């Protein structure tokens, strides 16, 4: 029998954020325990002020329970990660939802490459083993679009960026800023790890129908995630971000400028002064954006020299 509360370094700490999950949390904890019998582990439940006794049920089932100060999915995970960093010595941290959509049996597959040193973060891919009806068509399309945008703009070679079942080496906490409170937290984790030169891989994981009422808000959550991607794109690849905007404005200014120039050759006069002024302003703005991009890229590179995550022997 594995000693889950040993003072020695744990293999795994499983962080479970909860909010009114009284009908699921006991089963979730039991499934996690059954899946990790070969490892030295701890289950940490971060409760978001539940009013249905979720925290008491978690305690009764042997989990360590803490309360988050604020609210939101991202804040719950951040609270859990910081608690682990300060109070529990562990090699790997796993995050999983309490709604039973994920199968804890998949945790072993995520943890194995971390314990062997083959990866620094492992994220699940739900689309390869998804149960029929587990995700609506709208959510499925939205998740694929968000993942495609993240791959295109942020350089993440991940096909399911919003998967809530993932594991990472505990040292990575120091390389992640983690400021998002809601669903954008998931994409922020990946971007921070990627920026820290961590090796990130994917593993197929099962995705089941949710038990209970979903707390997701597809439209608002999707918009917040996309806005976070734009912010992270600006922060992680500033030269490309500002260059793209600058190129668009420059192309518009050039088009207006050519039109005005052709008019001058034909008539020897320029009657559309507002259009001429707009062309000049667009070209100036374009050059300013290119300059901002260069400066921001220089600042980012200087900053990264001091915070790059040492993948080997951290």
What does this structure look like?
This protein is of the alpha/beta class. It folds into two domains: 10-236, Spore Coat Polysaccharide Biosynthesis Protein SpsA, Chain A (Alpha-Beta Complex), CATH 3.90.550.10; 238-307. 49% of the residues lie in helices and 15% in strands. It contains nine helices and seven strands, in the order βαβαβαβαβαβαβααα. The chain has a seven-stranded mixed β-sheet, sandwiched between helices. Strand 1 (10-18), helix 1 (25-35) and strand 2 (41-47) form a beta-alpha-beta unit. Helix 8 (238-267) packs antiparallel against helix 9. The radius of gyration is 24 Å and the shape is elongated. Mean pLDDT is 84; it is low at 1-6 and 307-314.
Pick out its properties.
314 residues, alpha/beta, 2 domains, 7-stranded mixed beta sheet, elongated
Question: Strand order of the main beta sheet, please?
Answer: 3-2-1-4-6-5-7
Low-confidence stretches: 1-6, 307-314
Termini separation: 31 Å
* General form: elongated
Topology pattern, helix = H, strand = E:
EHEHEHEHEHEHEHHH
Q: Helicity level, as a percent range? A: 40-55%
Biggest beta-sheet profile? 7 strands, mixed
Secondary-structure-based class equals alpha/beta
Q: How many independent structural domains?
A: 2
Could you say what the CATH topology of the largest domain is called? Spore Coat Polysaccharide Biosynthesis Protein SpsA, Chain A
Give average pLDDT, whole number. Answer: 84
Beta fraction of the residues?
15-25%
The H-level CATH homologous superfamily of the largest domain, spelled out, is Spore Coat Polysaccharide Biosynthesis Protein SpsA, Chain A
Return Rg in Å: 24 Å
Number of strands: 7
The CATH architecture of the largest domain comes to: Alpha-Beta Complex
Helix count equals 9
Oligomeric organization of the protein chains = single chain
| CATH domain class of the largest domain | Alpha Beta
């Amino acid at each position: 029998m594995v000693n889950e509360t040993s003072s020695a370094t744990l293999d795994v700490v499983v962080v479970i954020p909860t909010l009114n999950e009284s009908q699921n949390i006991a089963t979730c904890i039991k499934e996690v325990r059954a899946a990790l019998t070969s490892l030295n582990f701890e289950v940490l439940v971060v409760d978001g002020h539940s009013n249905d006794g979720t925290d008491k049920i978690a305690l009764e089932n042997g989990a360590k329970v803490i309360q988050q100060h604020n609210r939101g999915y991202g804040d719950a995970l951040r609270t859990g990660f910081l608690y682990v960093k300060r109070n529990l010595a562990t090699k790997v941290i796993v995050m999983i939802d309490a709604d039973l959509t994920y199968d804890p049996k998949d945790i072993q597959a995520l943890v194995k490459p971390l314990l062997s040193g083959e990866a620094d973060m492992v994220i699940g891919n739900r689309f390869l083993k998804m149960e029929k009806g587990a995700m609506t068509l709208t959510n499925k399309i939205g998740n694929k679009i968000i993942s495609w945008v993240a791959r295109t703009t942020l350089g993440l070679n991940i096909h399911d960026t919003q998967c809530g079942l993932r594991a990472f080496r505990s040292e990575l906490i120091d390389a992640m800023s983690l400021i998002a409170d809601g669903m954008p937290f998931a994409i922020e984790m990946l971007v921070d790890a990627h920026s820290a030169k961590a090796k990130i891989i994917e593993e197929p994981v099962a995705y089941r129908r949710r038990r209970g009422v979903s707390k997701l808000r597809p439209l608002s959550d999707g918009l917040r995630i996309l806005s976070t991607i734009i912010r992270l794109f600006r922060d992680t690849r500033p030269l490309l971000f500002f260059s793209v905007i600058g190129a668009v404005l420059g192309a518009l200014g050039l088009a207006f400028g050519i039109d005005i120039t052709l008019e001058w050759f034909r008539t020897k006069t320029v009657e559309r002064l507002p259009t001429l002024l707009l062309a000049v302003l667009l070209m100036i703005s374009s050059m300013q954006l290119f300059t901002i991009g260069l400066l921001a890229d220089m600042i980012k590179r200087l900053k990264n020299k001091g915070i790059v995550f040492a993948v080997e022997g951290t």
